[in-house]
Amino acid sequence: MNIADTGDMFVIKFVLLTYRLLGMAPVTISKTQSSKLKFSQSWTGAVYNLSLITGVLTECSRQIPTMLGESSNDETSFSQMYRNVLIVSGNTFLVILLLRFCLCQRKLTEIGNELVEMDRYLDQLPGIYHLRAGRTYVFFVLTLHLTIIITYCALYLAVHPIKPAFFTMIVFPCTVMSFYTLQYSLVVFVIERRFTSLNEALASVETKTVGVNDRSVVSIFVIKRAYARLYRICSEISNFYAPLTVLIVVNLSTSLLYELYKIFFGLTRRSSVLPSPTIKFILGFLWISVRKLPIVLLTSTVRKCHMQMQMTSDVVHKLQDKLGACRDVKSELKNFITDLMHRSFQFTAYGMFRIDCSLLKSIVSTMTTYFVLFIQFQLASDKGASE
Predict the structure, then answer these.
(1) In this predicted model, what pLDDT tens digit does every residue of 182-200 receive, in sequence order?
(2) Is the separation of the CB atoms in 26 and 20 below 8 Å?
(3) d(Cα 293, Cα 190) in Å, to the nearest integer?
(4) Could you give the CA distance from residue 248 to residue 174 in angstroms, rounded to a whole number?
(5) What is the pTM of this model?
């Protein structure tokens, strides 16, 4: 998806509208006289975010005291306390998230405009640089996630009495946080497409510009500059998303643990609320998908991006072997290799943990351990209550 290309405006506007409604895109896009897209700060978006924050705080002041006093025959005091902590922390994280996007409009617009400028810069490579299309993937992923959420809400309403507090205090915060993670993955996907296209352009220098040494040198120089800009953009993206990623990963792990607990005991016990264990399982599976799918997409996309970064060095060395006869080309490639040796980047959450497949492994192992402890604690509580 070429951000500088107005032909991709439908997908861009669809993504922007979705995230603007959720308070995570308080920016506007416009087209300049040269048909160039421009990201700008939006006071309307800032006011909308502040309105959302006010609404969340108002709803919390109304609903949290009531929800804290509720009791259920299907849960113990410990599980109810665990649920209440999740509700309070989830809404707290939601307010922080909305406030951060409201205050960081400038950084958002800078990242967007840097990508636009880089796409324009790469127009200097006609014939060898072709940006891989990604609009279908972006549209599909966003639509799929929306469909899962709508399906969950529809099924929940079909088998439960209508509880507005459930959707405002639980579903909405979790939805926003899942879309935040999904937004992070889509931004990394945009970067990964450019690294892939640059690697292909670099590999095609030999076949498309062989015999034209000056053009080869210029092409390699342009690609090298583009790599430097991409690395800088990656660093800015990682720093922007890092603070809330820490909070969301913590919330994700704890909420998934609670959902697994509900599924397990929903299948092994008869409930006074939902007599059908199958419905409970389907609802639990859909809700876990809402929370888990974005983090899976994020880690897999980051992995692909890292692979493309590492592949660049191999491409440059192969090109050096084939075009080493030209002194100018060889010198430019040598400088490129030196630059790559000094560039080592990882998407992390402030260095606390890496955003890759190892994060998934850590989440699964942690959840498994605490899930077993949770069940043992629950069974012990049931035994004590029966005695």
Answers:
(1) 999 999 999 999 999 888 8
(2) yes
(3) 18
(4) 9
(5) 0.89
